[in-house]
Design a protein that fits this description.
CATH superfamily: Glycoside hydrolase/deacetylase
CATH topology: TIM Barrel
Strand content: 15-25%
Helix content: 25-40%
Largest sheet: 8 strands, parallel
Distance between the termini: 38 Å
Order of helices and strands: EHEHEEEHEHEEHEHHEH
Number of domains: 1
Number of helices: 8
CATH architecture: Alpha-Beta Barrel
Radius of gyration: 17 Å
CATH class: Alpha Beta
Number of strands: 10
């Protein structure tokens, strides 16, 4: 039976300097092996420089079309980049963001996903599939041999806190039940409080959990191999 292989991918990389710091710590001291870069934010350049200096961190594109928060029974935008109902505008924005990624990283993304999973939209999914094909990147939920696991997150689908979901015990439980083959585990590390998103205090908890030595022990004891998207592409990482 094939052993479990685990990619630990940090979303929202580049959105703030605090998120950059959390990702860097969780990569250097913890189990983060990959990150998805938001290219529209001023701190994205710092994030790209870290990735170029640390090529074992595979870097993907975290497409940013906006962020929505839930309250009073409905979702409302915290900010919007484009109208996600307008497919032509979304297509132009995807091209702009991948070109910005190339300028920052000097190469194509190893993987593609999106802020708040907008790429799962039936109307937008073909655009993301085409972008993945053009860049040679792996698309979250679009690669049959890579299972995405989003359980390591401190909120439910309506922004309500889930007690214990990002603690060490919860992460160890995920590791202990990984199936054979490749799993991508999403995470959102960060330090400080300079994030625009209301998901703030949870990021520091995630960072501490990802760096906890008990997590690495669980990985070793369960025969889990930590890999990145580079391993799936046979790439050596972005060129410096």
């Amino acid at each position: 039976m094939a052993r479990p292989q685990l990619i630990v991918n940090a979303d929202d990389y580049g959105q703030s300097f605090g998120i950059n710091a959390g990702v860097a710590r969780a990569h250097h001291d913890g189990i983060v092996t990959s990150a998805s870069l938001m290219v529209r934010w001023p701190s994205s350049m710092e994030a790209a420089h870290y990735a170029l200096d640390n090529p074992d961190l595979s870097l993907g594109l975290h497409v940013d079309l906006g962020e929505w928060i839930y309250g009073r029974g409905h979702w409302s935008p915290l900010y919007m980049v484009v109208d996600t109902e307008n497919v032509d505008d979304v297509e132009r924005e995807l091209k702009l963001q991948v070109e910005t990624f190339r300028q920052l990283v000097r190469g194509d993304p190893t993987h593609i996903d999106s802020h708040q999973h907008v790429h799962r939209s039936v109307a937008l999914r073909p655009l993301f599939q085409a972008l993945a094909a053009e860049t040679g990147a792996l698309l979250r939920d679009g690669t049959p041999h890579v299972l995405y696991d989003g359980r390591f997150y401190g909120w439910d689908g309506r922004g309500e806190k889930v007690p214990g979901a990002i603690g060490v015990e919860a992460l160890v439980a995920i590791i202990e039940t990984l199936p054979p083959g490749v799993t991508e585990l999403g995470c959102h590390p960060g330090l400080g409080d300079d994030m625009m998103s209301p998901y703030r205090t949870e990021r520091s908890v995630e960072t501490e959990t990802l760096c906890d030595p008990r997590v690495k022990t669980a990985i070793a004891q369960n025969g889990v191999e930590l890999i990145s998207f580079h391993h799936l592409q046979g790439a050596d990482g972005p060129s410096a």
